[in-house]
Amino acid sequence: MAFAAFSHGGGGKKSAAPVSKGNGKVALLLLLPGLLYLAVFFIAPLISLVATSLQTMDISSGFPVYSYGFQVSNYVDVVTQYGPQIFRSFFYALLATVAALIISYPLAYFIGVKARRWPLLQGLMLTLVIAPFFISFLLRTFAWKQIFSNESWIVGLLQQIGLLAPDQYLVGTPFMVIFGLTYNFIPFMTLPLYTTLERLDVRYLEAGADLYASPRKTFTKITLPLSMPGIVSGTLLTFIPIAGDYVNASGLFLGSTETSMLGNVVESKFLKSYEYPTASALSVILMGAILFLVTLYVRKSGTDDLL
Amino acid sequence: MKNFSLGKYALPVYAVLAFTYLLIPIAYTFVFSFNDYRRSNIAWRGFTLDNWASVCEAQGVCEAFGTSVTIGVISTLIATVLGTMIAIALVRYRFKFRSAVSLLLFLPMATPELVLGAGLAAQFFNVGAEMGFGTIVIAHVMFCLSFVVVTVKARVASLDPALEEAGRDLYASPSQVFWKITFPLLLPGIMAAALLAFALSFDDFIITYFNSGPTETFPKYVYTAAAKGLPGEANVIGMSVFFLAIAIVVTVQVRSSLKAKRLAKIK
Predict the structure, then answer these.
(1) Which of residues 145-164 of A touch B (CB under 8 A)?
(2) Structure pTM?
(3) pLDDT tens, residue by residue, A56-112
(4) Which residue among A245, A252, A280 sits closest to B223, beta carbon to beta carbon?
C-alpha cells in the first residue's frame, strides 16, 4: 500500500495547482518540523549505527569499553561468525514471501474480482484479512506456539500417522518459523494484491476467452501481467519486515537456537551482552542487503516509478 | 447442470479455508481467555469468567496496557500533526528538492524495524540518553510519521481546489479558508491516519524493545511473560482491543456504504 501510495504522488500529481504561488515560506514552515524530526531521529541514528559498527572494543579493564575507530574488520568477523544466521534471515524471508504470495493471490482475486458485485461482502472479507492485525502480533504468534506445542493433539496426530517421528516436534523447527512468518505477514501481501486486482478490467479476460485462449493462458498472459504492481509491492512489504524479524525465530516463540536469524543475534548482542559494534555491523549488513535487493528487484520487474 | 465445474466452487471454498487459517490464532486466544488456568495457560482446565471479571489481577498486565495506550495517544498526536503538515505541503506547494523529501519520507517505511530500533538505540546510547517512556515516544513518532503522510496525502490530492478558490473569492482570509473548508474536508483522512498511527504504535514490539529501558508496554509484557507462560488476563486485553478495533472498522464501513447509497439515490 505504502509503495503504491507513493507512486501516485510525486511527479504525476501536478493537477492540484499550488494554492499560493511563490509562497515558498509557507511550504518550508509546513515541512520543516517533520523533516527535522526525521533528520534527528531517523537519519542521524543510521549514521550513528554505521559509526558504532566501526568502533573498536577494549576488554582489558574487565568489561568492554568502546571507542570510535575505523575497524572494518568488525564486518569480516561478523560475517564469518554469523554467516548461518545471515543466510537464514534471507532464506526464510524468501520462502515465507513466496508462501504468502501463493496463499494470498487466489484470496485477493476472489475478493477483488469475483466478489465485486457484493460491496458489503467485499468489505467484510477485507476486514477479515486485516483482522489478525487487531490482535497483538506477539499474542497471535504465541497462540500458534501453543496450538503446535509438543503436548498438542495436532503434534500427537502427526506422530501417530507417521509424518513426525515419535521424538520429533514442530516448535523449534525451521518449518514452524517459516509458518509463523508467513502467517504474520499475509495481510501485507493480500492488501496490495487486492488493490490492483480490484481495478482489473474483466473485459480483457472476456476478450481473451473470445479469442479462444485457455483459462490458463488468459491468466498467464493477461491477469498476471496486469497484477504485477500488486505483486511487487506485496512481496516488498512482506520480505523487508520478515528479514528483520526476531520474534518468530526466537526460542521463546516458534524457534530455537537452530533457527535463529540475524535479528535474534542483533537482539542478544544489543540487549544482553552489550556488544554494540557487532550488533550494529549486523544491522548495517541487513539494511545494505535490503536496499541492494530492493533496487535490483524494482529494476528487474520494470516498475521503476515505484520509488 | 451441464456446466457444473469444480472451478466455480473452488475459489469460494478456498476463501473460506484461507479465512479460517487467518482466524485460528484469534479464536484460540479468545477461547483461552476463558480458561481457568493455574501456572501456565496451555492446557484447558475448565471454563471461567474470572479472567474477564478481574483483568488487573495478573501482575503488571493493566499497567503495561495503560502505558501502551498513553504512549499510543501521545505519539499519534505528534505524528499526526507533523505528518498532516508535510502532506499538505507536498500536494499544494511546488518546491525544490521535492524528490529528496519524498525519498526521506519513503525510507523509514522501507527500512526493517530492526534497523530503525537498533539505530535509534545506538544513537541514544552514544549521547547517553536514559531509555524509558520518552525514548519510546520518540521512536514511535519517527516510524508513524511516514504512514501519516501517505494516508493524509491521498486525501489532500483528492480535494477539489475549486472549493477553496470559492472561499477566497468570497473574501475569506487564508486561515478561514483553512479551518472552514480545507480542514473539515481533510478530517476523514486525518482520522484514518491517526487510527493507523495509534494501531502501529500500540502493537509495536521490535523497535520498542530496543528503546524502552525498564518501561513495560503491553507487547513487551507478552514477550517477557512468554518464557514462563502467559496469564489468561493478557488474552482478555488482546481480545478487548480486537473487538474494539473490529467495531470501529465495521462502523466506518457501514457508514460509508450508507452514504454511497444515499448519493446513488440523489443521482
Answers:
(1) 145-147, 149, 151
(2) 0.87
(3) 877 666 666 777 777 788 899 999 999 999 999 999 999 999 999 999 999 999 999
(4) A252
Is the Cβ pair A132, B154 closer than 8 Å? no
A49 and B CB contact within 8 Å: yes
Domains of chain B (ranges, CATH numbers): 59-230 (1.10.3720.10)
Higher pLDDT, B7 or A189: A189
A:97-116 residues touching chain B, CB 8 A cutoff: 103, 106-107, 109-111, 114
pLDDT, tens digit, for every residue of B125-152? 888 899 999 999 999 999 999 999 999 9
The ipTM estimated for the assembled molecules is 0.87
Residues of B in contact with A205 (CB under 8 A): none
Helix (H, G, I), strand (E, B) or coil at B117: helix
CA–CA gap between residue A266 and residue B97 (Å, rounded): 35
Q: Given A35, A51, A140, which is nearest B101 (Cβ)? A: A35
pLDDT value, residue B229: 81
- In order of start, what are the domains of chain A with their CATH numbers? 2-7+82-306 (1.10.3720.10)
Binning pLDDT at 50, 70 and 90, where does residue A266 land? very high
CA distance B154 to B98: 17
pLDDT at B53 (0 to 100): 87
The answer to whether the CB atoms of B222 and A280 lie below 8 A apart is no
Q: How far apart are CA B169 and CA B165, in angstroms?
A: 6
Q: In the prediction, which pLDDT does A4 show?
A: 42
Q: Is B74 exposed, middle or buried (0-12, 13-18, 19+ CB in 10 A)?
A: middle
User: A94 versus B51: which is more confidently predicted?
Assistant: A94
pLDDT at res. B6: 56
| Residues of chain B neighbouring A135 (CB-CB closer than 8 A) | 25-26, 29, 238-239, 241-242
Q: What is the pLDDT of residues B33-50, one digit of tens each?
A: 998 887 777 778 888 888
Residues on chain A touching B192 (C-beta within 8 angstroms): none
Predicted confidence (pLDDT) per residue in B68-114, tens digit? 999 999 999 999 999 999 999 988 888 878 888 988 998 998 899 99
Cβ-defined contact of B205 to A137 (cutoff 8 Å): yes
